[in-house]
């Protein structure tokens, strides 16, 4: 039933809104921006920080939190006055006085919501200094660093972990001045149910959560003359890195990114898209084999490390259904230290492999024992998009005015199918382009499978491929994934293949992507849609758009890997998973 419209007067202006609209939402329709900290448009309302206070006529001696107060018919609201501005400033001053004084050396300097809010409210002094909370830095995690001293108790991290990811790893523990956000019992992040996705980093308004920094180790490798340092870049990086240099969201910056990485001193710049194509060949072979030979269905995709961590901790009974394919990053790293090492006559131990990834969980993935060969680590460092952009800026490279360059070959050649890996539904569509031709034995008249493209979190479809109906599921954000996984466990529906991406929107919304430009938030569907559109645009302009038609992929099978799913391919390109329990649980 449609909601009744009501009329509200805000700062002397009338606005008509549906009943149930909050004062903050109604004010926004009039172009009035009410400052806030705990509020996030994609999460439930917390009403904790009180920065968004307003005055409602007829309510004496108190302010209303505009983020959680519903507008009422005829309500008159004042959002700005000397009294309101002073109260907001006092609130922010109190938060600041319990906050470290290290803005100039903080990773979020210039991109901190608390800092920006303090400036806009005119906070110039610390008036309420006293005892400040003190906590040790929890930086033992492979991926996510937790700094409780910078936490302002806004609750965003708690809500995104529960409401978007369904992990519920974080909560506010203890009371009053001693309240702290942490995993249960104050456990370390790697000893908890944390899946390393980094969405807590994305929504944190300060720097209470950050990625584990790998920039120092990469600088050291680049300065080491004994190391042959190579870098690979994930599909979604090219659609987002430009935002760090003033480009509008959705601007592809592939060529400039390659040039910038060469300027940093990398000996070779390769494209993870190459191994995304390789992943499709191996995964399609795996799916067709299961369909033809009665194997376990559905096949669950395995390229998202946050999802793999989630499966191992929350759905271990589904491990046998997961594709055994390594992620594209780990596949390419394996080839760089075998195939490529032989090509350039280098000892694999002298090749230093850096991944530029949208995902902080890749830092955890690279350290998994399954991604070592004979005691040798395959990927030596992982930079998030944010870290790579910082290094480029730090080096004095004028990214916006760089000429475009191409990836090195042969491990830099890719098809359009690989580009769309970076957005939700992309892995599924890329796989279908290859699976459909294998099943029907005919070339596709149209390579796009738009039915599986979805920025929204969940999609189920049945596609007719030859004489076969293929039931597919696509999910991004693990709360959505639970819906599909529970249907599998409860045998409510028979799927053939399910693509799961841990992060909202897929890799384009990864925990390591740039903090969004003004006017967007990290869970903004419009922002995610623009990044996705950039990848689809790249795909549409590629000469070759199906992974199995990549001549460089065909060549590496002929020269090195043998046949898809064969002994050598399986050894280098596949892995295993196992149940993982938090510390103290057996």
Helix content: 25-40%
Radius of gyration: 25 Å
Beta-strand share of residues: 5-15%
- Strand line-up across the major sheet: 2-1-5-3-4
CATH topology annotation of the largest domain: Rossmann fold
Average pLDDT, all residues: 94
CATH architecture of the largest domain: 3-Layer(aba) Sandwich
Alpha carbon gap, first and last residue: 50 Å
Category by helix and strand content = alpha/beta
Largest sheet: 5 strands, mixed
CATH class of the largest domain equals Alpha Beta
Shape: globular
Count the DSSP helices. Answer: 20
Q: Which regions have little confidence, pLDDT < 50, spanning 5+ residues?
A: none
Total individual domains: 3
- The strand count comes to 19
Write up this protein.
The chain is built from 20 helices and 19 strands. It has 586 residues and is α/β, with parallel strands linked by helices. It folds into 3 domains: 76 residues, Roll (Ubiquitin-like (UB roll)); 69 residues, Alpha-Beta Plaits; 358 residues, Rossmann fold (3-Layer(aba) Sandwich), CATH 3.40.50.1780. The strands form 6 sheets. A 5-stranded mixed β-sheet has the order 2-1-5-3-4, with helices on both faces. It is globular, with a radius of gyration of 25 Å. The relative contact order is 0.12. The model has no long low-confidence stretch (mean pLDDT 94).
